[in-house]
Amino acid sequence: MITIDRLARDDRPEWERLFRAYLDVYGRTEGPETYERAWREFQDDTRLHALAARFDGRLVGFTHFFVHPSTSGPDVCYLQDLFTDPEARGKGAARALIAAVAEWAGAQGCDRVYWNTQESNTTARHLYDKVARDTGFIKYQIDLPR
Predict the structure, then answer these.
(1) Beta 58-70 vs 73-84: how paired, if at all?
(2) How many helices (H) and strands (E) does the chain have?
(3) Domain around 74
(4) How many domains does one find in the chain?
(5) Which of 60, 55, 56, 22 minimizes the C-alpha distance to 38?
(6) Is residue 91 a contact partner of residue 68, using CB atoms and an 8 Å limit?
(7) Taking the mean position of all CA atoms in its chain, how far away is CA 48?
(8) Does residue 136 lie in a domain region?
(9) Which CATH number does the domain housing residue 35 bear?
(10) Is residue 146's pLDDT more than 90?
(11) Are strands 113-114 and 58-70 parallel, antiparallel or unpaired?
(12) Residue 105: pLDDT above 90?
């Protein structure tokens, strides 16, 4: 059975393992400060938020999200990261995480929840096409020097 709740303090090692696996999918490597900053933000739960998916109490997935203003209406919720352990895929964890974010965002007065994915992410897009509407937008990005 899938349960969705907040990340608990003792979830840190398993969350970081999953987050590293998620970033690996996109070919990204981050230093320890990235994980530390994100974890602090999720524990604070004011600017950045996170939910955990669990099977039989074991952390098998997460989502990271935040609210931001919109120039054309109420605030919106951006679902930035969503990942489930490969062993847990196809069992409803990602669907449950998306639904939980949507419920949370609605309770915050948000107008909508949205996210991006790569066009080639066909497995995830199969689910996304069932739970959301493809708006047809194409993402452009400028990477800034650090």
Answers:
(1) antiparallel
(2) 4, 5
(3) 2-131
(4) 1
(5) 22
(6) no
(7) 10
(8) no
(9) 3.40.630.30
(10) no
(11) unpaired
(12) yes
Q: Does 12 map to a domain? A: yes
The closest of 67, 86, 71 to 21, measured between CA atoms, is: 86
Residues 6+ apart with CB under 8 A from 99: 131
Domain contains 142: no
* Cα(125)–Cα(40) distance, integer angstroms: 30
Q: How would DSSP label each residue in 46-113?
A: SSSEEEEEEETTEEEEEEEEEEEEETTEEEEEEEEEEEE-GGGTTSSHHHHHHHHHHHHHHHTT-S-E
- pLDDT, residue 113, reads 98
| Structure tokens that stand for 10 in this block | 């003792």
Global pTM reads 0.95
Give 85's pLDDT tier (boundaries 50, 70, 90): very high
Asked if 75 and 69 count as a contact pair (C-beta separation under 8 A), the reply is yes
Q: How many residues does the chain have?
A: 146
Q: Is residue 145 assigned to a domain?
A: no
Q: Which two tokens stand for residue 101?
A: 């974010």
